[in-house]
Design goal:
Helix content: 10-25%
Strand content: 15-25%
Distance between the termini: 31 Å
Order of helices and strands: EEEHHEEEEHHEHEHEEHEHEHEHE
Largest sheet: 7 strands, mixed
Mean pLDDT: 92
Length: 325
């Protein structure tokens, strides 16, 4: 089978597409034929081991897992007590699921059925960013009438977060570039700040929550925009990992920083799955690549300018998923 391989931490141009043996599942594991996966921020961190803290999770000197990939959507192709042959499933593991390959092994309890009418591309694109977006809204207590600012509403996290926040009766301000203004408006933003023309930190409004979905700002810059008891959450550690320190010390202040340690996927993916079923969440897809061009996908994502998700087609993803509901 084809697989995207790296045996040491590296740059995209060092990824190799190799033909390797198809994996054989052990008891409690299922063989999945992968139809679609994505290249996302987590994949890029796993590829390069940056920030350095990633090495303590992935392997200090070299990665324990050589096949890349964190999320996937595919088909069950081995016997299972829990799933039927041919059943459409998806899943995500932030430390790597080795999914950027034609086949992969997954433990039964780490799989989730794809809802009806959701295709493989949509299913794969609904995982990584939305997983982290779930954490943002469940670390705080959102109430009717509050004002929320989302910095970076067009990324994988931001585009999911905007749709999740739209489920509440709140006022949403979102930042994006000029070309994505109509997209962000369609996803539910009440007010849009074009970051190519103005700095959102100069905004005159005050917010209950500022969600920095791209981690490109800081608490210090956003502090003047927060209400007296406002909360700042960033998807990144911040300069010198300051957001962890602020999260600890802000217990003693009115304005707080929360560092969004992700929830377990057994909480996040059922939530995502329900919104997909109800039509309340539609993952945004920017570009698609074949697995042979996966290095180009990584290069594009690492530029930090993608809109929503970048899909890698492994097999014919025009097929529709018809899994359980």
């Amino acid at each position: 089978m084809k697989a995207a391989i790296r045996r040491k931490y590296c740059f995209p141009n060092q990824i190799k597409i190799e033909n390797i043996d198809k994996p054989i599942p052990n008891e409690g594991e299922i063989l999945i034929k992968v139809y679609a996966t994505t290249v996302n921020r987590t994949d890029c961190a796993n590829l390069t081991a940056k920030p350095f803290i990633m090495r303590f999770v992935l392997g200090l000197f070299r990665p324990r897992k050589t096949i890349l990939g964190t999320d996937f959507a595919g088909e069950v192709v081995s016997e299972s007590e829990k799933y039927n042959l041919g059943e459409k499933v998806f899943g995500f593991t932030d430390t790597g699921s080795e999914s950027q390959a034609e086949y992969m092994i997954v433990k039964e309890d780490e799989l989730f059925p794809i809802p009806e009418k959701i295709d493989y591309k949509q299913a794969a694109s609904s995982l990584e960013g939305a997983h982290y977006a779930y954490t943002f809204i469940h670390k705080v207590d959102i109430k009717d009438g509050q004002k929320i600012l989302i910095n970076g509403a067009t990324g994988g996290i931001g585009s999911a977060l905007l749709q999740f926040v739209r489920q509440y009766n709140v006022q949403i301000t979102a930042t994006c570039n000029t070309k994505n203004i109509e997209l962000i408006r369609s996803l539910g933003a009440d007010k849009i700040i074009d970051y190519t023309k103005e700095d959102f930190t100069n905004d005159n409004d005050k917010y209950d929550f500022i969600f920095d979905a791209v981690g490109k700002s800081t608490f210090a810059k956003c502090k003047p925009l927060l209400k007296e008891k406002g909360i700042y959450i960033s998807s990144e550690l911040g300069p010198y990992s300051q957001n962890i320190l602020y999260a600890i010390t802000s217990f003693f202040t009115n304005q707080k920083v929360i560092f969004p340690i992700p929830y377990d996927k057994k909480k996040t993916i059922p939530f995502i799955r329900n919104l997909l079923k109800e039509g309340k969440f539609k993952p945004v897809i920017d570009r698609e690549y074949e697995i042979e061009d996966i290095a180009k996908a990584y290069e594009y994502v690492m530029q930090g300018q993608k809109t929503g998700n970048v899909v890698i087609n492994i097999y014919n993803t025009n097929l529709k998923a018809t899994g359980r509901v």
